[in-house]
Amino acid sequence: MLRRLVARVxxxxxxxxxRALGYSLSxxxxxxxxxxGSTGIVLEAPTAGVTQPFVFDYVWLRDACRSAESxxxxxxxxxxxxxxxxxxxxxxxxxxxSEQPVRIAGSADAPELLIDYSPKHAVVNEFTRTxxxxxxxxxxxxxxxxxxxxxxxxxxxxxxxxxxxxxVLSVAEPWDAATLKENGRPLSISWPEVKTPQxxxxxxxxxxxxxxxxxxxxxxxxxSSEPGPDAASLRELATTIGTLxxxxxxxxxxxxxxAESRNIAYTNLDLGFHMDLLYFQNPPRFQLLHMLRKTxxxxxxxxxxxxxxAEIMWEHHRDEWEALAETPVAYHYxxxxxxxYYTHPxxxxxxxxxxxxxxxxxxxxxxxxxxxxxxxxQAPLPLQSPALRDPARRELFLRAFNRFARLTxxxxxxxxxxxxxxxxxxxxxxxxxxSRTGFEWNESEKGHIGRxxxxxxxxxxxxxxxxRALRNAQ
Length: 474
Fold this sequence. Notes:
Elements: H1 2-7, H2 11-14, E1 24-26, E2 33-36, E3 40-45, E4 50-57, H3 58-63, E5 102-106, E6 111-117, H4 126-131, E7 143-148, H5 149-156, H6 158-164, H7 177-182, E8 188-190, H8 191-194, H9 197-210, E9 212-216, H10 233-241, E10 252-257, E11 271-274, E12 286-294, E13 297-298, E14 301-305, H11 306-316, H12 318-326, E15 329-335, E16 338-344, E17 347-349, E18 368-371, H13 386-389, H14 391-408, E19 414-417, E20 424-428, E21 432-436, E22 439-440, E23 451-458, H15 460-472
Parallel strand pairs: 8-9
Antiparallel strand pairs: 1-2, 2-3, 3-4, 5-6, 6-7, 9-20, 10-23, 11-21, 12-20, 12-23, 13-22, 14-19, 14-21, 15-16, 17-18
Helix pairs in contact: 5-6, 9-15, 11-12, 12-14
């Protein structure tokens, strides 16, 4: 009888069935089946997207247990370490010796997988065993692990896995000026709308999709960078979307154009395309600029999607794309008693073992976690790098760097908008290049602030967290 039962189980499951198990479970109201072996289970669920048998071993399943003994009910944090789960010796099994140690329970809407683990393979928090051995209780009964079947589906199907943690980079849709115009983008949304969950989600979705979005009707009367009754409205907007990041410029800061300035950003000259603070190891992900005052003529705000440039170079200049992904560019800030320095490649490929890893957005171009370009703060190229020490490789990089720069100046790549008082732009500082054109002011008004923006940086992780929470609440 056992031989006939095992014969009906797929080969992936048969390799797990080294003891008298080899049975299968049907998931109610679906075509999903779970084949049970001595070292793990095999999931098949064509309708749910599991078209090929997917194996879950019992160590992973025990680590994923959601029972009250495994996950604290209020903090939702694990009560043991992955390394506390025993590894069964060859020929042994973590399962309790019973007729059916793996079974399905729960409602049709929320089925669970129940797995009985042997007391001799009980999970004990090793920290507690070492520090407070008197608190450790000897297991005298099987532990029943409880795992929602939805969790298995989420890990077995690539699209569901990305959706389960709201893969923030998969939302991106690279653009040029024509693409934005054809699709009625970018988003402009009023501050009263942003104060609603639906409006906030719309703003964050647009910022992740296009790399930037605009908020209108943001009050300009209060201008203080400090918290309190006179705090600028930008502080409330920034804390609505995420967590403010304090830098050497402060928490909120001013971009004020005056006739006698010592910083090019505070003059009326053209300001080329760039990203901010690339001399940091972890530059700010999101930036906000809120127009408070504007009595000048000109000063258009310009934006370019560097991810679109990356796509163009991947498609048409593959060797140059690879040079920009492999060559370090140095950035520094040496001024006013500060000395910041860091190197980044232009194209920062998402590492396979890091959280931004995932499928390419379109075509075959590798997933990019960030793009880095900021000529005003670029240091001399680091010739100690092997990628730059070789003359041929350095020439290839410079050719690629020149092409990237030229593409940023292509009028078809540029979105242009003149921010007016009360308008604020939110943009991804690791993707969207920003700049502004020169402008004219009344030279007789010395000391007069002709153009005043309030700025802030917001932590990327906090923006992504807010986005995920709003998505999950839908």
